[in-house]
Amino acid sequence: MKRNTIAALAAVAALLTACISKETKQDNGNTAPEAWRLDGDRTVYGLACEGCNDSILVLLPNNGGDPISFDIFEATKNRRILGKPKIGDEVGVVPNATDTLKGDVVIDIDQLKGIWCYIVMPKLKDAVNLSERAQERLIQVMEDSIRENYFIPREYGFAMLRNWAAQSVGYVREQSSLEEESPVVYPQLGYFTEWHLWNGKLVITSGTPEVKEDNTTIVDGLINDTCNIDYLQGDSLVLSSDGISRAYYRKNSMTEVNQKANSIAARLRQQALEQTKE
Q1: Is the sign of the CA dihedral 112, 52, 88, 163 positive or negative?
Q2: How many of the other CB atoms lie within 10 Å of CB of 256?
Q3: Prediction pTM value
Q4: To which H or E segment does residue 26 belong?
């Protein structure tokens, strides 16, 4: 009796497994919902398998099922292969709306992860509404010592980490009113919390941090910024939004960038303090 029951249960389990596998394969690995997936995202996520080349990407979907072979010939020709997928890399493929076995965009997620920075320069606080050229003229007529003291380049950026978490790099929290005494102001850097992909685009979430009495930080007013990924190869990344492009370079240490940013901020605060005493 027990043997018959076990056999029957095994048969039911096998049938269910076959049905689930069939359903998953028909939907290119996107049947099971993922909590981190943004609404409307059609990207198929998985691991690059043996057999990948400039025309074919073989993907083992995260949701199970057999490997999927995507035709990426057109994507390669259109330079929409972002990164250089290697066997075992986590990859996202945006399938063609008509032919789901054709990949319009391929993103190497493992290569996209990391610390990305760019250089920013401060602007004259009292002349922020002037054009770039007008500001440059004002800076050129300044004394060399003033330029050296105040016009210090800083690194800004963000880190895209595992489990879709993000962190700001080069972020400095305003600590006193002394910043108001400085003649220069740096661009505002977002306080980033997470990142996602959405149909070939990069979505980064940021908000306004608030430090509580117990020294914990909460982030309010979360907003999503959506960027086109124009280029990703090696240590170079180019993102664009609203017609504006920005090039990033890869860094190995958040600590190094953050320490340098805070050191520059402390130096400017000291200079502002000295000015108030004069």
Answers
A1: positive
A2: 13
A3: 0.77
A4: helix 2-26
Is residue 133 left, alpha or beta, with left meaning phi > 0 and alpha meaning psi from -120 to 50? alpha
From the list 171, 237, 170, 253, the residue with the least C-alpha distance to 202 is: 237
How many residues can be counted in the chain?
A: 278
Both tokens of 86, joined, read 């290697």
Q: Is residue 25 within 8 Å of residue 57, measured between CB atoms?
A: no
In 161-259 the beta strands, taken as DSSP E runs, fall at 166-169, 184-185, 191-198, 201-211, 217-233, 236-241, 244-251
Residue type for 76, please? T
3-class SS of residue 221 = strand
The DSSP output letter for 112 is H
Q: Is the Cβ–Cβ distance between 190 and 199 less than 8 Å?
A: no
Joined together, the tokens standing for residue 169 give 């790099």
Q: Which of 78, 126, 69, 121 has its CA nearest to residue 99?
A: 69
Strands 90-95, 103-108: pairing kind: antiparallel
Helix, strand, or coil here: 21? helix
Which pLDDT tens digit goes with each residue over 64-122?
889 999 999 999 999 999 999 999 999 999 999 999 999 999 999 999 999 999 999 88
